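Pilot study result, target chain (299 residues):
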Amino acid sequence: MSIAATVVIALFGIVFGLASGSFSIMFDGVYSLLDASMSVLALLVVNLIASYSASAGLSRRLHERFTMGFWHLEPIVLGLNGTMLIGVSVYALINALSSLLGEGRDLAFGWAIVYAAVTLPTCILMVAVERRANRRIKSEFVQLDGQSWMISGCITAALLVAFCIGFGVQGTEWEWISPYIDPAVLALVCIVIIPIPIATVRQALSDILLLTPQDLKQHVDAVAQAFVTKYGLVTYRAYVARVGRSREIELYFIVPVDAPARTIAQWDALRDEVGEALGPDSSDRWLTIVFTGDMEWAD
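Predicted structure:
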């Protein structure tokens, strides 16, 4: 639904941008078209992750080539999306500043007002729909997409106010500001929206680089240390990473070399105990628990 609405708005913006001579409207259209292409890519990734988690809908070849799943694609897409949106906004800001330092840009305010008046309600509707849906879904993809609709709505609202002002000053002593309204609003909008995707890009880079989330690491350390104390083990080693919405945890418990033998069922019961202490099991958690008497296996 979001992709279809974005494509329509994008084409609508490009056509009306050309008709009115407004670079800010064309920027809005290009921004939306870029966002739609990223949404298509995000939807494909989400389907891959969901199909792998459910072990359904994937070919045997994909299962064999991606034995550890597709969670690593999520931060890549989020980072690419945020970076491209920042890049487009920086380019538009440079063009807007160039026009402001020159003679501005004349445009047909009537066409521009029609575009903004039609687009703004669509953006507001999509923000409401996606926020409501994401209360249940809790997806970073949907959150970022809703954020993009909010940005587009802010852009459109700013354009509508500016175009109304430009239309109102026609034939008055303030008509000289008309050529500067379009680039001025575009520059202001770009300055506001450029920082918005930065947090998403930063988090995506953290996931791609496998930076350890401190809160998760502290929780895993607390559980592992309590387990070591309870069963009189030597020590442990914990390796933790966040990749998209997945949590990857590797725990190595060092068992005394003279510890009494246990059956496989008993070792599995110990693993179950650790897993339950770490939190509820889910398809988003990749948990490995190893018992060994040799520290080299843990380091």
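One observation from the pilot: The chain has two domains: 2-208, 214-298. A full batch analysis is planned for the follow-on phase.
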